[in-house]
Amino acid sequence: MEPDDRPEGTSGNRLGDIELTDPKAMRALAHPVRLAVLERLQRNGPATATQLSPHVGATPSVTSWHLRHLAGFGLVRDAEGSGDRRERRWEAVARGFRFEMPDDEDGLSAARALGMEMFARGAQQIERWAAETEPELEPAWRRVARLANTRVVVSAEELAAIEDAVEAVLAPYVTRDAADRPPGTRGVRLLRYSLPEAGEGE
User: Which parts of the chain span the membrane according to its record (predicted)?
Assistant: First the structure.
């Protein structure tokens, strides 16, 4: 996919993710309720604070406060066609988000805080899947579920190339319209971690 073909509102990534560079935005998102709110909107589409509340572990008023906080950093916005301010409908600005580890101390601290919250949330998702979803999967879906722990010895440039190649494979599936999906599709959560080890190694 050429840069000009990439989704609007992104900084050149293939998957249409919003790219966080502001440490304040990273800190704002490093909160379990806010991460849950954003993920729910990205997965299920526009919703009100009242509709989100049972799924994010907060009251409607607290959920509304978190939504306004996320909106202040451009992560959510009023849903298109949402005219009733009393029952405000929100939507995610992008289908996903990403960030890099900055070099400055303030940015690095904020990125670490968000990363730790994402690791914790990822661990919860895996536990719920193993306890609740996997036992109910049909055999065909159980066979294609994957848990892998692969170690490679690469340079920083090679790791960047691996990540780029993975995104190139994923992009057509992430960005295609619902009408183009074949029968029998369902959501699949792909949790990707690239964790460089300390120092040089073999």
Answer: none
What is the tens place of the pLDDT at every residue in 41-52?
999 999 999 999
Task: Give me 92's structure tokens.
Answer: 């995610």
- The CA distance from 98 to 6, in Å, is 15
Distance CA 32, CA 120 (A): 9
How far is the C-alpha of 57 from the C-alpha of 70, rounded, in Å? 16
What is d(CA 53, CA 65) in angstroms, rounded to the nearest whole number? 11
Angle, CA of 7, 122 and 74, to the nearest 5°: 40
